[in-house]
Amino acid sequence: MARKLFGTDGVRGTANIEPMTAETSMRLGMAAGSYFTRGTHRHTVVIGKDTRLSGYMLEPALTAGFTSVGMDVVLLGPLPTPAVAMLTRSMRADLGVMISASHNSYEDNGIKLFGPDGFKLSDDTEGQIEALMENGVASHRVAPASLGRARRLDDALGRYLEYTKSTFPRGLRLDGLKIVVDCANGAAYKVAPTVLWELGAEVVTVGVNPDGFNINRGCGSLSTDAMKSQVVAHGAHLGVALDGDADRVVLCDEFGQTVDGDQVMALIAKAWHDNGTLRGDGVVATVMSNLGLERFLAGRGLALHRTNVGDRYVLERMRRDGFNLGGEQSGHVILSDYSTTGDGLVAALQVLAALVVAQKPASRVLRLFEPLPQLLKNVRLPEGMQRPVMEEEGVRKVIAAAESELAGTGRLLIRKSGTEPLIRVMAEGEDERQIDRVVDEVVTAIRAVAGS
Prior knowledge:
By secondary structure, the chain is an alpha/beta fold. The chain has helices at residues 22-35, 55-68, 81-90, 123-134, 156-166, 191-198, 225-234, 261-275, 291-298, 311-321, 344-358, 362-365, 393-406, 432-450; strands at residues 11-14, 44-49, 72-78, 95-99, 108-114, 150-152, 178-182, 202-206, 238-242, 249-252, 258-259, 282-286, 303-307, 325-327, 333-335, 374-380, 410-416, 422-429. The strands form 4 sheets. It has a 6-stranded mixed β-sheet with strand order 1-5-4-2-3-6, with helices on both faces. It has a 5-stranded mixed β-sheet with strand order 8-7-9-10-11, sandwiched between helices. The protein has a 4-stranded mixed β-sheet with strand order 13-12-14-15, with helices on both faces. The longest helix has 19 residues, at 432-450. The mean pLDDT is 95. It is globular and about 70 Å long.
């Protein structure tokens, strides 16, 4: 079923502008609550959020929607997205909701939904929820005696903290390691430093003072300079940068050199393959992952299976074909033995376990392959633009020429963002100057048509 409201990662937009308004959020709560009301038991939804100011608007609006159709609400407060997925399952809830726009700035917000199994909803399910909203939700209101109740779960953070620590190998500790952790002034600002400290590390914190406006601002997995500088300044062994809702992670070694999701997946794949726990003889990643990762895995008899961009599509392939490791170059790493979605903190703990076992610096442990030159540029489209830019003859000719030039030595990927009005142009290959030129030519052609 076609979707209009939902994108690649739930509903997202500018706060207090459609669709991220209180009115639409309430209707979404009513529709989703109605869809997941099955049977005669008391139905429950858990709701978490990050630290954006607009969370104070969206949380009560969703609560009103859910309670109006008879669903009880458990409010978790600021907590990472993977914590919401975990608690949805552990509390036997019928639905989980995370209010977050992930790595975006505070002006944006979003709503992600999880089914009772803790997994993000399929495109078809989201389409059916949209259909309920379009056809009117008033008929789903319950009688006064059947209204839902709302309460806060005071120990939500503690439950996720203990669960996260349980994913770290028994018998290992982080004693002697100094770790810089950047929480992006987001959802993990309390739990991430606490987990690392309780496992024995000396912790240096960045981005742990949220004020409603500073989430992802100059910090976090998309702005890693703060983490890197602190690693070098404090002589730390590793830097860990999470995004606003902590479902992705980017690392740096002791020299402040970036370690992205591809290198993290390579390390975990090697470790799990060596100890016999890697399932499917391969890894699932998106079309954005570097060819260097694919070649590294192939050299060990493992395959890289690519999907469309979006951790939900990675997870769908993992579930369908029995893989337990997948993710994105951007830092979404899905370890399905532990979590039903990307979990930046759990992924970081797997890397730290490898460091403890190897007793070697991060710069030696985390550089498993040399990435091929890769360049990504974004072209922002004018607001409300409906013109099919990619179908223009001039753009198609430039793209065809670029693909022909890279054939056999590299690849070109062009896609429309599912969360922002952007067209992303990415190329990679052996020759860095060629890659730069090819991307510039395609970007110029798109801009000429889009008028941006």
